Amino acid sequence: MEIEISSCKHLVYVNEIQQEMYDSAQRRGTGIAKRSIEYLSKKISEGNAIVATENNEWVGFCYIETWSHGCFVANSGLIVSPNFRNRGVATLIKNEVFQLSREKYPEAKIFGLTTGLAVMKINSDLGYKPVIYSELTQDEEFWNGCKNCVNYEILMKKDRKNCLCTAMLFIPENTTKNNIADKQLEIK
Asked: Strands, DSSP E only, in the chain?
């Protein structure tokens, strides 16, 4: 299996990716903001996504989006083709998109919204912590992206303070502080 930063060569998979995002959300009955072909194509073309393939077949996908002038980065749209699920592909893709986010935006806080326990575990293993929604970007465009979600009405009734999704946040300086504290303990 190849897992790589997206490029124009991956545009051949965009229709399948978009359809599986939609179908997967329908099967699970959970919220996922629907993304247009144009939106996903732009992410792929700009190298702001991770695409996994095997034998010219699409395996998995996840993209990054920046908010609040690069202060926040969202890792979004994680999806694995049904033929490749339960093999650890989501973890591999999430690790790669996390590294891409850290390389492109080393000072940014990285966040995600999810209803999935598996994604919560992956995020936790990467150093994300559950947070309240006020800790996330307050960029209106981000929240407008939730309008396609089946849970949007719940989000708005709660004044964007919470929803059915769990918000998780990785703060780079916390990692640096933890690494320094660990090294100080080793010295003692």
From this structure: 2-5, 49-54, 57-67, 72-80, 109-114, 129-131, 166-170
Q: Number of helices and strands (H, E) in the chain?
A: 7, 7
188 within some domain = no
Whether 187 is covered by a domain: the verdict is no
What CATH code is carried by the domain that includes residue 65? Answer: 3.40.630.30
Q: 122's torsion region: left (phi>0), alpha (psi -120 to 50) or beta?
A: alpha
Number of domains in the chain: 1
Quote the domain boundaries for residue 56: 2-182
18 contact partners, CB below 8 Å, separation of at least 6: 35, 36, 37, 40
- How many residues are given for the chain? 188
In a domain, 104, yes or no: yes
Whether pLDDT at 30 is above 70 = no
pLDDT band at 31 (very low <50, low <70, confident <90, very high): low
* Listed residue (44, 36, 4) closest to 18, CA to CA: 36
Query: In this predicted model, what pLDDT tens digit does every residue of 40-97 receive, in sequence order?
Result: 999 999 999 999 999 999 999 999 999 999 999 999 999 999 999 999 999 999 999 9
User: What is the pTM for the complete model shown?
Assistant: 0.86
